[in-house]
């Protein structure tokens, strides 16, 4: 698999993980349970991974140039 395709696929799966984590935290709050303080920090590692992969995908066309037809 191409390196760029691998990063794109990784970004998609991490976004699913991030969304599920945030949804679970809101579901706990909606159910009236107060989670421990460390639970609020769980979305941060996937968020940083999303930031790095997203920046890579955003700037990739500028560094590689336009594809010639």
Please characterize this protein's 3D structure.
By secondary structure, this protein is mostly helical. The chain has one domain. 71% of the residues lie in helices and 0% in strands. The protein is built from two helices and no strands. It is elongated and about 50 Å long. It starts with a helix and ends in a 5-residue tail after the last helix.
Cα radius of gyration in angstroms: 17 Å
Rounded to the nearest angstrom, the distance between the terminal CA atoms is 23 Å
The count of helical stretches stands at: 2
Number of domains: 1
Strand content: under 5%
Poorly predicted ranges: none
Element-level helix/strand string: HH
- How would the global form be characterised? elongated
- Would you count the extended β strands for me? 0
The major beta sheet can be summarized as: none
Helical coverage, percent range: over 70%
Mean model confidence by pLDDT: 91
Summarize the structure in short.
The chain has 69 residues and is mostly helical.
Name the features.
mainly alpha, elongated, 2 helices
Give the topology.
Layout: H1 3-30, H2 44-64
Helix pairs in contact: 1-2
């Amino acid at each position: 698999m191409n390196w760029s395709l691998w990063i794109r696929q990784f970004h998609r799966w991490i976004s699913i993980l991030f969304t599920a984590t945030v949804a679970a935290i809101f579901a706990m709050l909606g159910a009236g349970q107060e989670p421990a303080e460390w639970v609020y920090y769980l979305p941060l590692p996937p968020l940083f991974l999303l930031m790095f992969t997203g920046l890579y995908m955003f700037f990739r066309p500028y560094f590689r140039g336009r594809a010639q037809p």
